Amino acid sequence: MVDRGTEAQKYVWEGAIALQIHLHESEVTTLPPPSPALILAPRIGYLPLLVPQIKPFFSSSLPPGVDTVWFEYKGLPLKWYLPTGVLFDLLCAEPERPWNLTAAYVINGNCKNIMNMSQSDQVELWNSVVNGNLESFIRVSSKLKFGIGGDEFSDKLSSLKSPQSAAETDHTGSVKTGGKRKPIALRFPI
Q1: Counting CB atoms within 10 angstroms of each CB, which of 65, 109, 111, 189 has the fewest?
Q2: CB-based contact 144:150 (threshold 8 Å)
């Protein structure tokens, strides 16, 4: 039993999101294209943990030699280091059921926060997610400093959440934001 956990933490920890994952059209090597994969993903899990389920599903339609996957939503590459539930909550103003994602087999990323952790903390954090150990996750993740701001992901996120109207743009076509961008810190209550 988790002493410091709350009902809300347990609810989120045990929560899941229905995903419908489509293979990116540039990856399809067969006709007809494969049907989408339907997966129930843990909110606290990470999209790369779904690859062992997805790759066999699409294997007959993939080009030879592919082994890494990245995911996107409405053309926005998804950050692989953010939990699935956080991505869903940030990107779906009106939640889709199931959430439609696209899988492609090319990857670029930055793991600076994790790489700055000690080796033992990295292992403990990973094992807490894989094994569903909330207490261990809270203890190790409190050492991380997550932040979003000033990058392409944030720009695309803003455009997905608040569609532009003609009144919100000036004569050059630039969007008026009405203020400075502020970083968002993800904190896990203890």
Answers
A1: 65
A2: no
